[in-house]
Amino acid sequence: MADFFEKLIATITAAIMTWYVGIGGALVIPVKVKMNTAPVVFDVGEENYAIMWHTNTKGTGSVTINVKGEEKTYWDATSGTINSKDTLHVVKIKKAILDEAKSYQVHSEFVLFSVGYFAIKGPKVSSESYNFKPYDPAQNVIRALSVADIHGEHSNAEAATKVLLDDAGAPADFVILNGDISRDWLLTQNDFVDEILVIAQKLSKSGIPVIYARGNHETRGQWATEMIDYFPTDTGHLYFETSYGPIKMLVLDTGEDKPDDHYEYAGLADFATYLAEERAWIENLKKDENESIQYRFTISHKHNIDTEFGENWTIPLVPLGTQFIFCGHGHHNSLRAADETGIPFFEDGGQPTASLITFKDGDITAKTAYADGALTDWGDITTVD
């Protein structure tokens, strides 16, 4: 009997997928499942990665990884139920698992309809197998590639990145997207896919982690409220802590850039409450005393967190051992010291630029490249003359 129903479902699905259906004189072509983007491995906290990709049809998402000689499957699922009604797929994977395996493959299966114990499913598409490069304890140089405030201008970011990596003569180890990667706002899921996910994949080539810090433009638009659903961070918010080998990072979500009652927000902003909760979270953090940690910095889209919130957000960063604050928002590049604490701000951002931060022998240096080929060498960014 089970075989009969499986054959029936297959027959119905095949008919739906392969025959043209006329609607009002128009033709609806057969559904063909394809991946609109290659996957991106987002770093979402100390313990987990989130592998994300987009397909042209709704359906399931899964990741296969070879774990100690056995292929295991990890699903885009909620409380045990596999998600099948979305085109944006996110699979949460323990860092230790992917770091050891060093490769993965993603899959999606079209689901037309499901109810109770019955589902009509269609074709399945699988990606190529992607190599993944985790931190290697044997390496003595770590390079972080960053872009901010590109506002959808992918070509400039890619051109500046090429200048940087050609100059370094080596690939980056992880990527930082430091906010305002989208053009103006996030009205739909496609805005996120086209303007953020695509550049994340281009810079990481699906093979190194990506850290995303939200910019103020990405708080805007109807889909902006849904974005957190696709970033399963340790905190449940778009602020969190993470590490890459000997590097400890605090990733902030600095919200909007105007008061909540500003007319541009149409009465739909309550960042005062959100930021107060985030500030309290920072104040409750304890310095990680792990002896392997050599470098500590904060990623913040806004460049003015020492004044923007009515109080100096650099003060609670001091006991955490913060060496510098890496930020964007100002659409310019500079190195300055914060008021009171003296913690340096390395300000990066703007459509023509990308920056490379290098961690080596206890030193932290940075270079900024421009799309036209120019380079600025900032030297040590943990001190300001």
Q: Could you characterize the architecture of this molecule?
A:
By secondary structure, the protein is an alpha+beta fold. The chain folds into 2 domains: 2-131, Immunoglobulin-like, CATH 2.60.40; 141-380, Metallo-dependent phosphatases (Purple Acid Phosphatase, chain A, domain 2), CATH 3.60.21. The protein has 5 helices and 24 strands. It has helices spanning 2-18, 95-101, 154-168, 189-204, 271-284; strands at 21-23, 26-28, 40-43, 48-59, 62-67, 70-75, 77-78, 81-82, 86-94, 103-115, 118-126, 130-131, 141-147, 174-178, 210-213, 240-244, 247-251, 295-300, 324-327, 334-337, 344-347, 353-360, 363-370, 375-380. The strands form 6 sheets. Strands 15-14-13-22-23-24 form a 6-stranded mixed sheet, with helices on one face. It has a 6-stranded mixed sheet with strand order 16-17-18-19-21-20, with no helix packed on it. Strands 5, 6, 10, 11 and 12 form a 5-stranded antiparallel sheet that branches. Helix 3 (154-168) runs parallel beside helix 4 (189-204). It is globular, with a radius of gyration of 22 Å. It starts with a helix and ends in a 5-residue tail after the last strand. Residues 17-29 have low confidence and may be disordered.
